[in-house]
Amino acid sequence: MNSENVDLEKDKILGDYALFASGGKQHIAQNGRKVVVEKIDHEPGEEVKFCEVLFVRTGERHLIGKPALTGATIIAKVTRHLKDPKVISFKKRRRKGYTKKIGHRQQKTELVIESINC
């Protein structure tokens, strides 16, 4: 069983869904489902349109893009902006008196998928 099947079974995706790219990553979209993506510059309550749709499944029909489907869009509404937990990077050179500690929190945007158009 490949990793895609395991992920789909774990998330219990049933019915129509699509795969789209945002922020260099691929996400699964399903009507009414919440998705967290890299930060996009839209205010909460605004609609966002994603045109880079890679795969759409509707019923028994599967559409696969090469690399993206032409004319397919996903419309989502921004619900809020949030941050990932802090990641600490610590560097040290032994016997040299060198230490460096850096923290980073990645900014994210939470979306609710409203429609998948193909």
Characterise this structure.
The protein has one helix and ten strands. By secondary structure, the chain is mostly beta strands. The chain has one domain. A hairpin with a 2-residue loop joins strand 1 and strand 2. The N terminus is likely disordered.
Helix/strand order, N-terminal first: HEEEEEEEEEE
Count all strands and give the number.
Answer: 10
The general outline is: elongated
Q: How confident is the prediction overall: mean pLDDT? A: 90
Which residue ranges are poorly predicted, with pLDDT under 50 across at least 5 consecutive positions? 1-6
Q: How large, in whole angstroms, is the Cα Rg?
A: 19 Å
Provide the domain count. Answer: 1
Strand content: over 45%
Structural class: mainly beta
Major β-sheet strand ordering = 2-1-5-6
- SS summary, helix count: 1
What is the straight-line distance between the termini?
Answer: 29 Å
Largest sheet: 4 strands, antiparallel
Helix amount, in percent? Answer: under 10%
Keywords:
10 strands, 8% helix, 118 residues, single chain, elongated, 1 helix, 4-stranded antiparallel beta sheet, mainly beta
Compact overview of the structure:
With 118 residues, the chain is mostly beta strands.
Write the layout of secondary structure elements.
Layout: H1 3-11, E1 17-22, E2 25-29, E3 34-38, E4 47-50, E5 53-58, E6 61-64, E7 73-83, E8 87-93, E9 98-104, E10 107-117
